[in-house]
């Protein structure tokens, strides 16, 4: 995660049909969405000692994420601002991810071309791996050059499930 804001950070954890989800943010908006899958490189996520638990914040996000995992929603429409913290390059990659339509996928090289940096495929992959708001910023829609499922910070089984929920059938 990039530089933390000076604001107080709040969090809440809730259950969905797929996994527990933790939302973290400040008065600026939502900074982190963590999927507790027990898999992937984000398995070591921890709630920081100075974060304050507050289930009254980010309620629109919570409700829509629960609906998504229940198969009742594929698009999100929040009033809570999304405020992922990252470098300018990471922000450009995350913005490009938001252009991927529900039910479709693209390749890492497509994102690199979209941000006008076609030689930065590996850097794009690294930025995608650091996406602090997966699911909503749909990094799960990025696949390998041959269309295969490749890395997902919360595990490939979760990536497969998310794509299937959105109607993008994958093996």
UniProtKB/TrEMBL annotation:
EC number: 2.1.1.63
Localization per record: Cytoplasm
One MF term in the entry's GO annotations: methyltransferase activity
Top EC class of this enzyme: transferase
Reactions this protein catalyses: a 4-O-methyl-thymidine in DNA + L-cysteinyl-[protein] = a thymidine in DNA + S-methyl-L-cysteinyl-[protein]; a 6-O-methyl-2'-deoxyguanosine in DNA + L-cysteinyl-[protein] = S-methyl-L-cysteinyl-[protein] + a 2'-deoxyguanosine in DNA
InterPro entries for the chain: MethylDNA_cys_MeTrfase_AS, MethylDNA_cys_MeTrfase_DNA-bd, MethylDNA_cys_MeTrfase_DNAb, MethylG_MeTrfase_N, MGMT, MGMT_N_sf, WH-like_DNA-bd_sf
Domain Methylated-DNA-[protein]-cysteine S-methyltransferase DNA binding stretches: 88-167
Keyword Zinc attributed: no
Pfam families (UniProt xref): DNA_binding_1, Methyltransf_1N
Alphabetical list of SUPFAM superfamilies matching this protein: Methylated DNA-protein cysteine methyltransferase domain, Methylated DNA-protein cysteine methyltransferase, C-terminal domain
Signal peptide: none
Keyword Hydrolase: no
Single Gene Ontology BP annotation: methylation
CDD domains: ATase
Primary residence: cytoplasm
Note: This enzyme catalyzes only one turnover and therefore is not strictly catalytic. According to one definition, an enzyme is a biocatalyst that acts repeatedly and over many reaction cycles.
PANTHER family registered for this protein in UniProt: METHYLATED-DNA--PROTEIN-CYSTEINE METHYLTRANSFERASE
Family per record: Belongs to the MGMT family.
Function of the molecule: Involved in the cellular defense against the biological effects of O6-methylguanine (O6-MeG) and O4-methylthymine (O4-MeT) in DNA. Repairs the methylated nucleobase in DNA by stoichiometrically transferring the methyl group to a cysteine residue in the enzyme. This is a suicide reaction: the enzyme is irreversibly inactivated.
Entry protein name: Methylated-DNA--protein-cysteine methyltransferase
Provenance organism: Vibrio algivorus
